[in-house]
Amino acid sequence: MDDPAPPGPLAGLREEEQLACVVAERVLGATARPYDVRGVPGNGRVDALLELPGGRSAAFEVMGLFSPDTRAVAGRLAREGYTWPAAGRWLWRIAVGSSGDLHRLKRVYVHVAGLCEAAGVETPERLASSSRSAAEVDPEVRWLVEESSSRMWGFPSIPAAAGGRDRGTQVTPPSRSGFVDSTLTGLRAALVAVFDSANVARHLTKLAAHVGPVEERHLFLWVDPLDPVTPLPFDVADGLASGTVLPIDPPELPGAITHLWLAPVWRGRVLLAGPAGWSQHYPYDEA
């Protein structure tokens, strides 16, 4: 969600809230004013208020359809270039399942890779299963396989270094894959499940409870198609991020909101649903 720093008046909101406000300002020609500012008492307040053209106004609530921990892991790994020093003779890939794994994983991954290479197996799981007894399993291998939420894969046919270049170890957050619904035919049904989830329901409650004089109530959802815990199915989430087609059917919006925003975390297009149906916008093209 990297973007130029939002204007000063949005200071006090979280980064994802600030950027969502900038998107709404660009798409709607609105002015956003923070309403639920960090450090100010008042739980249950919406994140911002939008002053719309023509004198209308809107309550504006922002949330992410992804795990905060996954985003934290992604941020830390991005600062390291998604690469750690080579684990051994082979190329290795690591999927870091949680931020709680990181410290120990960085300490033991070379040791675990060395044991796997010595045994000629590509994963710690295969190494553990090949042991004659549980007592023979290395403690760090046991932790990685049984206690952590991270995984390692070795590629014996790809050397860690070639032609004087060290490929390092590829380290990424967990991800998912599958078919892509480029037409977004499954979006309407998927959103029903999204609105029923406890986390989204909490934000809908905030919008419904807003007592100020507003004509519209907007829910802005950041979407990460690769996040394994997002409530949107992969085919729909990826179609939203990579497609260009608008959904044919309008969504069934809960009574608490009048407008729904769907925005992929890596920018691109943004979808907006309201009384007139779906529209798509490219707010990041503007200076």
SSE blueprint and pairings:
Blueprint: H1 15-28, E1 31-34, E2 48-51, E3 57-65, H2 68-79, E4 83-84, E5 90-95, H3 102-119, H4 124-129, H5 139-147, E6 151-159, E7 161-162, E8 165-166, E9 169-172, H6 187-196, H7 198-209, E10 216-223, H8 234-242, E11 259-264, E12 270-274, E13 277-281
Parallel strand pairs: 3-10, 5-9, 10-11
Antiparallel strand pairs: 1-2, 2-3, 4-9, 5-6, 7-8, 11-12, 12-13
Verbal overview:
The chain is of the alpha+beta class and 287 residues long. It has two domains: 8-69 and 177-285; 86-167, no CATH class. Helix content is 31%, strand content 23%. It has helices spanning 15-28, 68-79, 102-119, 124-129, 139-147, 187-196, 198-209, 234-242; strands at 31-34, 48-51, 57-65, 83-84, 90-95, 151-159, 161-162, 165-166, 169-172, 216-223, 259-264, 270-274, 277-281. The chain is elongated. The mean pLDDT is 86.
